[in-house]
Design a protein that fits this description.
single chain, mainly alpha, 4 helices, 83% helix
């Protein structure tokens, strides 16, 4: 479940950042054994840095968050239905 959450955090980053770093960040997360909580926290901090410090359109951050939340809700619904 934490990998899914981390992938959602990666999807909240600006497109240019995701295209350049998402695969590498996910590989590091997968290789991490005990650092997943700290990597999740770093992912949240990274989102703030990328959208508010390096980007001039914070409204896109809200759009990215909304898309990620919809994705998480869809996965949760599929998981819930599979368990019924």
């Amino acid at each position: 479940m934490s990998r899914l959450l981390y992938r959602c955090l990666l999807r909240m980053h600006p497109l240019a950042f995701r295209e350049r770093f998402a695969a590498e960040m996910l590989a590091i997360f997968d290789e991490s054994e005990s650092g997943s909580v700290s990597l999740l926290a770093d992912g949240v901090a990274s989102i703030a840095r990328q959208w508010f410090v390096r980007n001039d359109a914070p409204w896109k951050f809200l759009l990215a968050c909304s898309a990620a939340l919809l994705e998480v809700a869809g996965v949760a619904l599929l998981w819930w239905r599979a368990g019924r």
